[in-house]
Sequence to fold (265 residues):
Amino acid sequence: RERARRGGGGALPVHQALLRRTLAAPAAGAGPHPVTAKTGTGLNEPVTTFLAVGPMAADAGCAAIALHARTAEQQYSGMANWGRIAELVTAVSIPVLGNGDIWAAEHALEMMAQTGCDGVVIGRGCLGKPWLFRDLADAFADRLIQPPPTLGGVADVMREHARLLVEAFNDDEGMAIRDFRKHVGWYLTGYPAGGVKRRLLAMASSLTELDALLDELDRDAVLPPESHRIPRGHLQGPKQVTLPEHWLATRDDPSPPDESGRARV
Fold:
């Protein structure tokens, strides 16, 4: 939200001249490396921008554009409007990647069939579910999608994730485990782990404690039917977007906001 208040994020596409400059610079300077763009459908339903951003990205030299089929105001609430992805497909000459409400591999196939998009971008759907990418690879290759891992398989991935975080945080185990806590609920989404164990795992303070708690889970427990399609991740919204002062009244201004966050007038 702070990005929008300063003219970035969902606020940037409103100022099309500024956006054009923003898109052109990396595309021109990347040499042979492809540059892609990602946008939402707009600020809100009265102020949509995606049909302007798509052709602009193509003109700037972007290799593809991804569309999260929600507005900035909507945040992560409600349903993604896949129809907007189909509209963008017909409006641009570059590949379109769809984003929004892909919780399982079959959702990706459904989106591509419904919209004609060229591929998908995964956001919240992979939180606590890294095997989603395995499932997507199988689905796109017309292979049988494998069943979800048992709770024991999930626990093994959780252990590996936590240890990799320790490495990423330069062996600061305390910081790594605190960062890992937010992933616990996502990993256990849909599994019969029990509320008490979920809470204890989300409060673990060391690898040793995490390992001991994971050992208490039923390794043979399976994900109930259809639970693999449960949404996960952030659910906040809708929330009004705070824009720089005079932002909507100065849409043709190619200048970024001043240091105080006001549009230049």
Summary: The first helix runs from residue 2 to 5. The chain has a mean pLDDT of 94. The chain has ten helices and four strands.
